[in-house]
Amino acid sequence: MLTTAPHLHIRRPSPTTTEFTVSTLPPQTLPLRLLLAVVNLLRLLLGITVLLVLYAKWSLYSPYTAPASPPEALSLASLANALQHVLDSAPGRLAQRAAAGTPAWALGPAALAALYAAVRRVHAAESLLVLRGLGIQTSSSGATVLGAAATRFIPTEKIQDVLINEAFRGFEVRHYLIVVVDGEEDVVVVFPKLLPRRDVVERVWRGVRGCLFDVKPRPKDDDGQARGNGRRTNGKI
Amino acid sequence: MPRRTYNIAMVCDFFFPQPGGVESHIYQVASKLIDRGHKVVVVTHAYDDRKGIRYLTNGIKVYHVPFAIIYRSASFPTVFSFFPMFRNIMLREQIEIVHGHGSLSSLCNEGLLHARTMGLRTVFTDHSLFGFAEAGSILTNKLLKFILSDVDHIICVSHTSKENTVLRAALDPLMVSVIPNALVSENFRPLNYPTEPSAPGAGFGHNPPTAHHLGPNDPVTIVVISRLFYNKGIDLLTASIPRIIMNHPNTRFIIAGSGPKAIDLEQMIEQNVLQDKVEMLGAVRHEQVRDVMVRGHIYLHPSLTEAFGTVIVEAASCGLYVVCTAVGGIPEVLPSHMTVFAKPEEDDLVLATGKAIAALRANRVRTEKFHDQVKVMYSWSNIAKRTERVYQGISGDISETEFYGYETADSAAWGATSRSGVRSFALIDRLKRYYGCGIWAGKLFCLCVVIDYLIFLFCEWWWPRDQIDTAADWPRKHFEDSDED
Questions:
Q1: Is there a single domain that holds both residue A186 and residue A107?
Q2: B176 neighbors B165 (Cβ within 8 angstroms)
Q3: Mean pLDDT of all residues in chain A?
Q4: Of B47, B57, B93, B129, which residue is the least packed, with the fewest Cβ within 10 Å?
Q5: CATH fold label, B7-182+380-467
Q6: Which of B63, B65, B469 has the CB atom closest to A197's CB atom?
Q7: pLDDT for B241-282, tens place per residue?
Q8: Signal peptide location in the record (chain A) (predicted)?
Q9: Over 70: is that where the pLDDT of B367 sits?
Q10: Which candidate from A172, A175, A236 shows the least CB-CB separation from B88?
């Protein structure tokens, strides 16, 4: 319910720039926003709880005890003191009891899994930015909210071709868009995680060729080149 | 009414880059079917560096399915593990007819089973002959029976092969068509043959090729091109060569090919001191075969079993007089004036070769005409046309009377093994057909079919049809039907 099949969103900030974004984010409606807010709040709570339990477990074995006198502000000791206060509160005592009751071998993996669930990205988004005369930049959102998007810029003179290919993947055959880069053994797969379906890939492919090579025939253009590109665009892969 | 075209999948373990007869057969038929406006994809397994999806000349799309490699370590589970991939390929290519080749290809057998489960029409081409008596043959025959119980139509390469297949798999002979192999006759021209047919306006037709007479002292060269295995009759050859050379001293032999029997041949040459009479070339590639053949006058084919024998057609096309054993489908292949037949035994082979040499020396054989005659007899476009007719028959596009050539008045009496148009996809009818395969085998086959069907249901649920993209078609060729050839 929170995600949809990968769909395409095209943005044209300027006549020579196009951004193709494929994401699993469904259209923003009020119920969806509310639901997302609730889910994110729950995830935040889950994360805090797990951290608290982990701290409680650590404090069980910790040789340090909270100092009696109030320490000066903004020091490591003051942080420990504040955490001690949290542990002494009602949820803190609950966390302590949970920490004491759970063996470490079970707590570790469970905490890791819960933390992963808390920071995992709900929606994946991958995009392709095409700048005529400069090149193209692929970007792919990280698996968690902590990681940054992985981007890769390919300058125009390095691009040998942009094309759609088919390959076996698992029990399926998928269409995918690739960029053939000059001087590299491997091709660059665009939208590598989402692998959108053929209609999306074809629209992006036409858009990229249109924007990058300007295949629309123009009177001023070099005639042969325009015709050549036009023919290649019209043909199916 | 416009002629209907089909989407056809050729399924076989054997395909290029591996060389061989089945491989080139699939390629040629696929290529000619595409010329006739059909869409053809080939499904085969991955070869070393050949994985994924490739296109060949003429727009033949080849799926080199990577995970048939699992087969070598575990055989039984792959019967079903290929199914999801197979289903995906069939759906994305919108296949209507699955055409399997070669009874020893497990990929083909699995593909036909899955295709029937998916409700597709199936055709099977058998390229080989098998015995009935040995343990291996009995097992193979049982497997063949399992696969063929539910196939819509079967194509054999010769009438002998048809008889053999009908007996092995207990089939209704009307379900089996005979469509021979063919050859690309341009690749098998005799020496000195005009490469371009003379232009229409240049003269009155083109002159018949001049006869080249064999002088009284010219040596007769006998060519043998064969893999050197037992079943190719190399033992016969080894025994015959010294006797032939003793009877006709002005005779040379050229033997091309490799295999375990090469040692026997070499021993024979050394024992009889025939080094200057018998030349052994070792393995030759298929494109060099013609160059070897045109060096000779007679082609000797001592095979013990052969479904069709494309090589003797190639030899005749190169203008060689053919001496061969009358086994399997060989007697059907060439007209009698091109061949001398022998029984598969030493004395008769020596005798037949002697007759052939005598006939050549007397210049009674017009070998220079063979090429044009063979060219008319065998062409791949004709094969494709006949294959297309099979497709039309099983799809119900031509009437049963026309396809089978008889009235199906009592079609109800055929029951579960009834004709194509009514060969039902219903699971219960399929189970009936499989159950008749044997006391134990029938139950085992039914179990396999039921499991296959359950897997099919699971696939339909896990990978719904509307989630599978259809692949773009290669631009179809426009084809005008002509009643030529």
A1: no
A2: yes
A3: 80
A4: B57
A5: Rossmann fold (3.40.50)
A6: B469
A7: 999 999 999 999 999 988 899 999 999 999 999 999 999 998
A8: none
A9: yes
A10: A172
